[in-house]
Protein 1
Amino acid sequence: MNTRQQGFSRRAALQLVGAGGVGAVLAGCAGPGSTGGSTSTGAASISGEASGDISFAHWRAEDKQVFDDLIKKFAATTPDVSVRQDISPSNDYQSSALQRIRGGSVGDVFVAFRGAQFVDMVEAGLYTDVSNQDFVQNFDPALIEAGKQDDTQFGYPYQVVFNMPVTNADLVSKAGGGSAPKDWDGFLGLCDDLKSQGVVPIAWPGGDPGNAGQLFNAMVMNNAPSDDMCTKIESGEYKCTDDWFLTTLQQYVQLKPYFQDNATGTAVEPCQQIFATKKAAMLATGSYHIAAVRALGAEFDMDLIAPITVSADEAKYEGIYNATFVLGVNSASKNQAAALAWLEYLSTPEVAGVYANGTSQNVTVKDVEYTNPDLKAIAPWLTRKTLLAPRFQFNNLDIRTAVEGACIAVVGGKSPDAAAAEAQRVVDQQRGQ
């Protein structure tokens, strides 16, 4: 499978639909990467009447109410099927979902993060082949490539998210003179202006590796020699001690004065809180946290920004996006027809629109009408030059943890050279060298 991570630009946006002409149809989405081995699957066709109790396993606790509402509506149209949500924190889901779902008692329908988790779940035989389902036509084909392995559609990515800092648009606009920085000096200057106004420029959850790593996407997108930089670190072609990665670590050091105090020990919830209360101008996670910030009472306009770590003429990309939350049917489920019915229901444009507008998340389903003001605000990013989130190129999570951990380590005080060398030792060990 082609592991090259592609960006999309204005020419790659196929259409913009919905209220005010806003939509979320993107192009150029690459798959999760080659596994280099055989794949065992639950590829038997799904048949029979949709009935029974099913579990929907995922990590989006902030979406629980929206899914509860959709479950009630689904019950009205499919009374023989009942759906319960089994929700785990994202870090727990990343580490233990495969084991929990394998037996079939949890996760008749389940999701996976794009990349390593999806690859592992396919190879473990958890996903059922859903390639030939009629409702595949409800999805933008470019955006569900991340749910394929060896040309088989095992899952349907449901979310299109921007894994880059969310901003308080008013604070950032006033400090930046109304335009986003186009180079590294400009970004540091913006942070200086924000700090002089008495706010934390960047709330960064350095104590939560899963969320801390989102900033990594933007920090490497223009520094790296190629778009598949993380694939090449894992393969050994690139090293953490290479100049481009050392430059990235040095830039993390430059950002340290602009993070909140004790940044490497801060979880994501406190970061959301200081951002929601206007004490921080940026939340360095992604658009997937907009709804959570709104739930904390934030009433200001939000936008997105990514640090441009090079000069303006060297910048290839403006930001980061991802197609993830890969929906699938458990091969061990005793109620596969019911599970498939729930998945089909989620794929309809009307239902996907309720989910999108209720959670401030763009979706991969075509012809969705977006009415959510936050989705309208970030709609321009759908047509900008953005890179498919590179951190999910890693198939070995120990390597990803080591590489991203080097970024956390330098904010904590370790020298870039020492942090890079330590990360490379882990990479070498994992590669058997």
Protein 2
Amino acid sequence: MTQSIGRRAVPIVLVVSACVMMAAYYAVTATGEPEVITNPNWALQRHANENNVPVGKLIHMLSHDYADARQWPVTGVHVADLPAGEAGVREALEHLAEESSVDWYTLAVFPLFGVACVIGLLALHSRRDFSRWRWALLAAGVLVFGLWFGGQTNPMESFVKAIKYLAGLEGQPVDRALTLLAFTLLAIAGNKLICGWGCPLGSLQDVIHRFSPAKKWKPPFWLTNALRVLLFGLVLCFLFGWIFGIDKLVLYHYANLFKVFNWTIAFPWWVLIFAFLLCLFWYRPYCHLICPFGLWSWVAEHFSLARVRVSTDLCVRCQKCVRECPSRAADARINSDGRAVGLPDCFACGACVEVCPTKAVIFDMPRDGYVSSLPPKQ
């Protein structure tokens, strides 16, 4: 029993540490919404300096309403002489100030998110009342972390803001680095814990898929991952101006479905409807194709402490887990060539753990006789 508790303790400590780290940092920096300062005779650069935001971020915000904002001079021209005028610049700065402000209500989401991840970890580990916990946490992901807190536990945003900082579109480097580090620690503590058990958008896709009567489709991982990597490459090209002569353009802004939780989507509603219709027959299409944190956590998955493991002695290759798995993850772990690198995303849904008749599939720390994927059948 002591050994079992010890196996659980390390990832739980990482989960709690990550959430405490985020909550503590935001508590220290929770100063309310800062005052916005503008002057019609200042240039854009001085407005950015006086309000403590990168000028690139200010221009990026203005470009949402003014398509040619990236061509505006940042020095030597008064904002009163720009198409936005002082009023437009003030509106952009107020929006940026609202984004960066932190209140005590927002802080409550971090400990709650940590509790959800720990419950998911324990449910996966123990197998007891597994389905009940899974449905409860999926509902919490949608209703609490999504609709109530407005998608504050947004792993995609943590990654995107980190790379935007490198392009000069974000300030507060400690904030960006710390948030991404905290979410990465969650991914290392337990494979895809954040995506499978807490992410509001992931939970919403999961619920739609599980309730759908449509015939399910499992596209090959090499294809979906190649498209996800290609999109990430294009994002970097447009962000840093490597090709096409375009820079400071964040493609992910035009495909950020997390915004549905605070009603600020930047694309037509039919795109949103189409995206969720895909979930009827395809498990988590947004995670597999678009989400950059999904790609990042797939890399982190190779270092996760608690994850799906298969017993070389107990597994009889009955294929029940392969049939129940909503993606290609179980198939690669049961019927592959024994490799441990480059396996398809496993979203820690636990279906394989739940249906295994011989208890050969576990979600746990490393154990003797358990491997990431079975070697070829002799």
